[in-house]
UniProtKB/TrEMBL annotation:
A matching Pfam family: HhH-GPD
InterPro entries linked: Alkylbase_DNA_Glycosylase/TA, DNA_glycosylase, HhH-GPD_domain
Record protein name field: DNA-3-methyladenine glycosylase II
Catalyzed chemical reaction(s): Hydrolysis of alkylated DNA, releasing 3-methyladenine, 3-methylguanine, 7-methylguanine and 7-methyladenine
Keywords: DNA damage, DNA repair
PANTHER family on file: DNA-3-METHYLADENINE GLYCOSYLASE
Coiled-coil intervals, chain numbering: none
CDD domains in alphabetical order: ENDO3c (cd00056)
Superkingdom, taxonomy of origin: Bacteria
Domain HhH-GPD as annotated: residue spans: 55-207
EC number of the protein: 3.2.2.21
Length: 216
């Protein structure tokens, strides 16, 4: 049986995590009651989530959302086969950069060659999932961590490269002063072993959920 760290967060886990965080951290003590009854929404389609992570790279949230909408409209469905069928002309028409198109075609080919769903990863720990994903061209650590969080629902992921999370830590813990990754890791020590829940609460409080997770 996989360890607890490999299991997706359940509603029961979420309640336990919120109680733990409220005991350990003054900011979490304030945030957890504000979002009672809410929890991280998992994305059932892991491929689509990875595509979104590539789309979001190096773009503002607004620009990424617009590109994502155009891409989904062009594909019909964000499936590996549909991605492989997207022509250069269609990609150009929706203003999908050629480099990202190459990354997405490689990713689609990987999923077609080795079909994957959430159960494929249940015996794979977080570091190994990140390693496998980062071996794919165009997937950065941030995208791999988003996959762990929003597809696999892993409980203890600290997406230290996420700008919105760093800004939230700055606002909540440092009165808006700039924070380093080292500062963020120090804050997050109190979040163990539920860093994913704490990060979600920070994002939720900032209205800054990654990858358009707060979009309709």
């Amino acid at each position: 049986m996989p360890g607890i760290s490999n299991k997706p967060l359940s509603a029961e886990d979420w309640a336990v995590a919120c109680k733990h965080l409220a005991r350990k951290d003054r900011v979490m003590r304030r945030l957890t009651p504000l979002y009672a009854g809410e929890m991280l929404r998992r994305e059932a389609d892991g491929f689509a989530l990875l595509v979104r992570s590539v789309v979001w790279q190096q773009l503002s949230d607004h620009s990424a959302r617009q590109l994502w909408k155009r891409l989904v409209a062009a594909l019909g469905s964000a499936s590996p086969k549909a991605m492989l069928a997207l022509t250069d002309e269609a990609a150009k028409a929706i203003r999908l950069p050629q480099r990202k198109l190459g990354y997405l075609r490689d990713l689609a080919a990987w999923f077609v060659q080795e079909p994957k769903d959430a159960l494929s990863w249940v015996h794979v720990d977080d570091d190994a999932v990140i390693e496998q994903l980062m071996a794919q061209r165009g997937l950065a650590r941030w995208g791999a961590e988003m996959f762990l969080l929003f597809h696999l629902g892993r409980p203890n992921v600290l997406a230290i490269d996420d700008a919105a999370l760093l800004q939230g830590i700055s606002d909540h813990y440092f009165s808006g002063e700039a924070v380093s990754r080292s500062d963020a890791r120090e804050v997050a020590q109190a979040w163990q072993p539920w860093a994913s829940v704490a990060a979600w609460l920070i994002w939720r409080s900032q209205n800054a959920m990654p990858l358009g997770q707060d979009a309709d």
